Amino acid sequence: MNFKRVVKHLITTERDVRKTFSPSHLQHIAQAISASESQHSGEIRFAVESALELHPLLQAQTPRQRAIEVFSELHVWDTELNNGVLIYVLLADHAIEIVADRGIHAKVGNAYWEVLCHQIEQSFAQGQFEAGVMNSIDAVSTKLIEHFPHSGGGKNELPDTPVVIG
C-alpha cells in the first residue's frame, strides 16, 4: 500500500475538481465535444473524478482500472458502431486514461492512446488542465473523423456534458 497515495486521495475532494475545472471550463469541454461529434459518428465522453473511494484505494486500484469501470458505468461501450471514447481524469493522481471501444480501438491501437495520455499528462504537470483536455478531444476527434466520418443524419447517442465524480 502506498501511504502517500492514500493520503492524497483522502484530501482531494470535489472542491478540488471545481477549482481545476470551473463550470466555464466544463462548458467549453461540452462545446468542444459537441462540435467534434458533428464531424464524425463517434461518441466522446469526458469524466473527471476527484479521488478513489477508500476500499478501491486500499485494493491498489489503478487509474486505468477505474477508467474501465467508468467507461462501463457511463455506457460508452453502448454505441451502434462501437466507437465511443472515454477521456478520464483521476485528479488525485493527476492521471489521465483514454478508454476506446473496440470499433475505434481496432483501427487506432494502444500506442496512439498511450502517447496521447502522456502528452496530456505533460500539460497537467504544467497546470494546463483545460488545454490538456481540449487537446485530447482534438486528438480523439482526428482519429474518429479519419475512421468514422460523419455520414449525415446521425444521432447523438451519449450526452456531451462532462461528468464530475465526487
TrEMBL record:
Question: Which residues belong to any copy of the TPM domain?
Answer: 16-141
The transmembrane residues are none
Instruction: Give the protein name, as stated in the record.
Output: TPM domain-containing protein
Q: Which organism is it from?
A: Limnobacter profundi
